[in-house]
Write a structure and sequence with these properties.
single chain, mainly alpha, Non-ribosomal Peptide Synthetase Peptidyl Carrier Protein, Chain A, 4 helices, 0% strand
């Protein structure tokens, strides 16, 4: 069963809330690091680790550095989850 964008976004909500320590945070597809003041290079690493662990996928550091929005992260998760299921 493949994950939809909404499935991934729902799961990312809890991860984002934990990583950025904001229980009111609701990530949206067009959000960028600029929209979340706590989203810096250190939290990007924490976010990557938490996402990899939760979705049981692996990212290259260059892939994480290229992410510009939540949508990019969702697409990357989908591509990895699909490859892992194949």
């Amino acid at each position: 069963m493949s994950l939809t964008d909404n499935d991934i976004l729902a799961q990312l909500t809890e991860i984002f809330r934990d990583v950025f320590d904001d229980q009111t945070l609701v990530p949206e597809m067009d959000m960028t690091a600029d929209d979340i003041p706590e989203w810096d290079s250190m939290s990007q690493v924490t976010l990557a680790v938490e996402v990899e662990h939760h979705f049981k996928v692996k990212f290259k550091s260059a892939e994480m550095e290229e992410l510009r929005s939540v949508r990019d992260l969702v697409e990357l998760i989908k591509s990895r989850a699909t490859a892992a299921a194949a």
